Amino acid sequence: METLVEEAVAEALRGAGGGERIRLYVAACAERMAPLFVGLRAAGEPGREADLDFYAESVRGLWHVGRPLVGAAEGVRLLERFPELEPNEEGITDVADTYAFFAALCLRYALSAHGSGNADDAVSCGHAALTAMGMLDRNVPGASFLGEEQRLQSLSLRADASEMWETSVAAGRERFRAVSDRLTRQACS
Asked: What is the dihedral of CA 56, 105, 181, 52, to 10 degrees?
């Protein structure tokens, strides 16, 4: 499978030996995508409180990069039961559903990579984030979310956890604002 993750980033993840670098990389990717899931589902999906809590708790847990996440495999199984990751014959056409799907997919691979140290899962996590940002760029005039995601993925290989957390939280908020503005414009059309 061809991936949007830059080759230098993918090679660094594969050379990380399943350690702290992989865990920081996936924690940062998931943090940047989290507002898209939590924000979009909190607003439009009543009855999903347990899913929202699980999602937020899982992202928080990823930031313990010094050790693999206990229960990551169980977290993946729980997440795979989310409606966003259930097979759907009709596909995904709704804007909010699309970004919530990519956020859930990103977390799914983040949990797997964090627990196992598998570099391919880390690359898939980054690929999900990049795919979503590429779509956002195509739908928001003048946006450069894809380039920013590529820069932040590269930065996460050399930055420390506190720096990446702050940067990722800010980037996630900006993404959520862009999608929310798009949804508002769509509703007004």
From this structure: -30
CATH 1.10.132 fits 7-188, yes or no: no
Report the SS3 class of residue 71: coil
110: its two tokens: 């983040």
Boundaries of every domain in the chain: 7-188
Q: What is the pTM of this model?
A: 0.94
Name the amino acid, one letter, at 30: A
106 close to 33: Cβ distance less than 8 angstroms: yes
Task: Give the pLDDT confidence of 133-179 residue by residue, as tens digits.
Answer: 999 999 999 999 999 999 999 999 999 999 999 999 999 999 999 99
* Residue the block writes with tokens 């206990």: 70
String of DSSP letters for 159-177: S-HHHHHHHHHHHHHHHHH
- Coil vs helix vs strand at 12: helix
How many Å apart are CA 1 and CA 6, to the nearest integer?
Answer: 14
